[in-house]
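Entry for adenosine-5'-diphosphate complex. Fields follow.
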Amino acid sequence: MNNQEIDTASMDLWERAKTIYLSTLYSEEERSQADSYFSMISSISVKDDVFTIYVKNKFTADYLQEKYSEKLKFALNLAGGNKETVLEFKVDPQSIPAIIQPIAPKPVTNNNNYAEQAQAKVAAPFISTLPLEENYTFEEFVQGSSNSWAFAAAKGVANNPGQKSYNPLFIHGGTGLGKTHLMQAIGNELKKKNPSMSICYLTAETFLNEYVNALQQKGMESFREKYRSIDVLLVDDIQFLQKGKQCQEEFFNTFNDLTWKHKQIVMTSDVSPKNLPALEERLISRFIGGMVQEIEAPGYETRLAILKKKAENLTPSIPQSTLEFLADNIKSHVRAMEGALAKVHVTISINPTQELNNEFLSFILKDFIEKEQTLKRLTIREIQECVAKKYGITVNQILSSDRMASLVTPRQLAMYISRKYTPKSLQEIAAEFDKKHATILHGVKSIEKRLDVEGELKGILVDVLSEFGYSINDKLE
Ligand code: ADP
Ligand code: MG
């Protein structure tokens, strides 16, 4: 076996082990934390029963060792690895220190090797502490009405980076709805089209950490230079900037410098720019100076399309009826859908003859489905009370048939929330509002239309939902 083969085989083993391990985690936080640590892995090698995982820095190596070593070893065994395998985490000798690295490719002088010279010319000065996930492309992203505007804007940026109408692009939406995917798709596309473009992808938290390090190590000059000499800055989870006041100042300056030079900036956040209270006003007004797009939770059709896409290349393949079951039962966000799909896949990989009927699926996906149900604890009465309070009216007025405009809006809004944010049937809702089905449907439709154009109404909806710990993305259909 040559080296190439060894590496591919160990990579495959690692991928299987990773899927198995991730599918055993239920909580979103755990999964995304593990995911982000695993994304720091630069290569894998297996030699004489020693499975070595190379990462970019010592901190990550130590952390992975302490937190994941035991469980990963178990997953490696399950994935078909040797029981005697020793697992170790090492720093990749080829990795460059995260901070203060050269920005542009070094000029090639006195070098007669033309192949190297040619390579150096196209080598991207890709300065990023976080690698781009290669699967996060536009092709892999499923469009639907919940994300089509954000998708179009991201495409626009990838086609024309730095163009005023899209700069900066601010994408917001609940967790696990595809913000990072879209943002990295921009990076991947630009990198493909123009390898010499310098693109920097990082989270606001990384920016903050690097800033603090630079301060401590007196490396402010290099820090500034690094961020001001890139072509495209992709900052994920900008809400983390709220943690550091001084860093906001630095970001503001970097931001201005880059936009002044017509360099593209893209940001994502789990809330809209207006809901970032700890951010300075001037930053927010800069953030909304370009284009702001929201990603919402996908409806049934989009969920099914996403699941089909994710299941496309899996063997053994996942039956259509199982994908429908998943689309029906896992609605909160795409990451949860992927987790549930991974779980089904691991199960049928181990036992390909298993019949995937609803009873069995409900059993193996119990945790996922229960989590979905806790999102549905709202009662219609609570909704009526909350909306009435917001509008300064009484629940009786909501329940009445009085057609005064000041009562119709709150009444219909309460109907809308009951319909879209609880799993109650139309019949149950109609009974609790003491109205006919058609009246409820009419009310829901009317609010739906108005929400597209009336920012104020949307604000009230967000407020009411937030009183229950919900976001607008918790919508069920
Ligand atoms: P966020 O950054 O909004 O929390 P991510 O971009 O990390 O969400 O998405 C979570 C997972 O869901 C990723 O694996 C991503 O590929 C997948 N995903 C989300 N939306 C879509 C979509 N529309 N099409 C395909 N995959 C999606
Ligand atoms: Mg994200």
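NOTE: DSSP finds 21 helices and eight strands in the chain.
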